[in-house]
Amino acid sequence: MITSLQVRSRYLLILVLITVMLYYPVLLGLCDAFISEERGFTLSNIQYILSRKSIQYAIKFTFVQAFTSSILSVLFGLIAAFSLLILGFRGANIYRALTIIPFMAPPMVVVMGFTALYGSRGILTSIYPGFIVFGEGFWAVIAAHVFYNIPLSLNMVYAALVSIPKNLIDSITMFSRGRLFFIFRKIIIPYILPALFSSFILTFIYCFTSFAIPLSLGGVKYSTLEVYIYYYYKIFIDKHKAAAIAFTQYLFLLAFVALFIVLHGKTFTAPIGYRHYRLRVSKKFKILLGIYLTVITFYLYSPLLSIAYYSFYNPLAKTYGLEGFFRIFNIAYDQALGIPTHFIYVNTFYYAFMVALLSMVISTIIVVSGSKITDILYVSILAISPLTIALGLVRAYGSILPNYMLIIIAHTLASLPLTTRVLRLGFSRISRNIIDAAKVLGCKGASLYLRVLIPLSKPSYLVAISLALVVSLGEFSSTFFIHVPETTTLGVAIYKYRALRDWQASAASALILLILTGSILALLSRKMERWL
Amino acid sequence: MISLKNIVKKYGDVIALDNVSINIPLGKITVILGPSGSGKTTLLRLIAGLEKPDQGRIYINDVDVTELPPWDRSVSMVFQTPSLFPHLTVEENIGFGLEAFGYSSAEIKERIEWAMELLHIGHLRGKYPDQLSGGEQQRVSLARALVLKPKILLLDEPLSNLDLALREELRIELKALQRRLGITFIYVTHDQDEALELADYLAILYSGKIIEYGDPLTIYERPREITSAFVFGHNIVDVCIVDGEYVYPWDNAGISCNFKAKAIIPMHKISISKDGNHCLVIDKLFRRNYGILVIKCRDYVLRIAVSFKELGAYDIGEPVNIVIDKDISIIR
């Protein structure tokens, strides 16, 4: 049996780990908001940033863009989920699973995708110039956020729709005359309302802390608070004001996360299999839904596909070729980026490998320690923006740890909510009888985990490792904040190629990153279906 | 008349219904009795239109309804679990179907009142399903189905999740309700007592096939199939027939015969006495309203329904004699 001492020591170990990796650096980083070099404790930093017109505008913009993005994502996702359900084709589950590719696409890949499709020299812009609104500025930020979050609301709503118990579906069929909007109004909307709210708030939180997209597509005018943290710390070299912005943002985030916690308990996990609703839907309506789903599919995958086109196409010379790929290995870029190109790849893979390893060890300890810790960790990381974490890590350990270790810690923190969730689900699906049988046969403590639980959780480890790899390969926010030229990763390099206006090199690098992350996700999409 | 003709329904490789044909009369209670997995619920769902058969046709009053959706069949259904909408009140649950059918609000109100009065649930109107007991939920479910005034009401083991006393109370109410409304009830159950108590007509479904159909008492007392005997828990004994008389294995001293026939003996068709030693009491069982003596006659174990007084009169290990009623089924 596991003694209470063992349980307590595990809790302590996790508490120490998370405190060292997350709470202590973040607290230290945020404390700077209340310290001035001359006067000690002060509120002047907070007063200063709140009185600045640019920050007031950023607060307003952050709210407006997050709200608009969330409303649109939930609306489009809801209709897409409903279309999937009504059209009821056999590949619906695979379709759903594959949406993890856009959902987890690295931010710089998405930025490049939108540039390639809707930018000033984008594929669609060249057909109709009006598409430029999705390539830069306010609507570009919204469009990219909606792109990211449609899969989230689609999956959450779909899971809720198919979680309506079979007997209730029979009741609906028997007593509703198959009247679609009647069923929608009387049953479906009330039933999926918590899932709708949850996906709205989760999307809102993600958009609220968005960094790469407003930084790259919004420009200075459309900067979020997260971008301002970066500006103040890195451009204006004022860590106190940066911390003050981070603190302000943290207060807002806490409120949203609290709301999310209240609603999250009411969300659903999609059961395996398919539930059939018998609805009276006209052929015309079905065709409309089919067209809608086609448009959404195009919207989700066309930016990614256009990267491939853009990597081989030179929009200035209007020629096709591999020059984009050759150029990224050009020595001129070694000098511009301050690191030989091949080291960028070494860094990217090395960090991803270390993050996968660290995440698995920490996630296993967390999961073994109990579900409460997983929840606390999930909520903690959700409430703290990636740049606030990066700021804290640099503030706390910047002078004692090498730069690459800070990046690895930041990536590990970003992947932990996902990996612990996947492992926890994997562990929870092991039959209680098997665990009891192992205990009766004398398997206890660590050996229970090593001989029974971990081997039986192999599929979830595979998924968790893949997710950790994908998160690390694509992470941009904290990496961009922490990195120095020697620790440049592929995501950061894409940003820099883009900043140097070399679209082709940027697209070629984005394509490589997309192939790396996309193939991992596509290979595991069937398995991941269960965790969506 | 509800006619099912050559119905086949498969789920993957599993045949749920295998060439089922049956004619169900209108205005009566027809009970489909069968063990778990025999295909009872599937049969009901096909009549309801919740599923489509792989083969065969379904007719209601000579109209082919096989392709029609449930709402165009004039049927309503009560499910095994009450399946009430958890976010709607009792009143809203009952009125749900009426609203879907587009009745005026005045008519909806009137019909809801009628159904609540019929099922004695007026006091529950503002409550939500999770505030109701199992029995109350099932009454509401029944009201929701009846309020539509269907021609056919399908009941899928509606009482199986209730405790015994409530089950018996509701059975009586259901039968009275059917007599009062004259609606066709098709009732599915695995409970023999329930089946016999409710049925005007009884069908026995076994492994996806209707093996017997007709008057319940006849089927119970003189089943034509061994499987029916299994379903009712009758005694099954090999017999030989000599000069038109049944000879049981424990009675055949000196007679040469091949036991090529089987006697199906309901428990109440055996009488027991102490004047003989053919058999031996090996166990005594209590049921709610009667007792069972388990006796062994040569290699055959038989069960006999007796009164509690008789049950007390016999001891385990005591030699006894039995007499079997002549009015039983013999299957060759």
Strand order of the largest sheet of chain B: 6-7-8-3-9-10
H/E series of chain B, N to C?
EEEHEEEHHHEHEHEEHHEEEEEEEHEE
What would the principal axes of the Cα set say about the shape of chain A?
globular
State the helical fraction of chain A. over 70%
> What's the total count of β strands of chain B?
19
Please summarize the sheet with the most strands of chain A: 2 strands, antiparallel
Mean pLDDT of chain B: 89
Question: How many E-type strands of chain A?
Answer: 4
Straight-line distance between termini of chain A: 33 Å
Task: Give the CA-CA distance, first to last residue of chain B.
Answer: 34 Å
| Largest interface summary | A-B, 19 and 23 residues
Structural class of chain B: alpha+beta
Overall geometry of chain B: elongated
Strand content of chain B: 25-35%
The helical percent of chain B reads 25-40%
What does it look like?
The complex is a heterodimer of chains A (532) and B (332). Chain A is mainly alpha-helical and 532 residues long. Chain A is built from 27 helices and four strands. In chain A, the strands form two sheets. Chain A has a two-stranded antiparallel sheet with strand order 1-2. In chain A, helix 3 packs across helix 14 and helix 19 packs across helix 20. The longest helix of chain A is centred in the first third of the chain and has 35 residues. Chain A is globular, with a radius of gyration of 24 Å. About 2% of the residues of chain A have low confidence. Chain B is an alpha+beta fold and 332 residues long. Chain B is elongated. In chain B, helix 2 packs across helix 3. Chain B contains nine helices and 19 strands. Chains A and B meet through helix 9 and helix 10 of A and helix 2 of B.
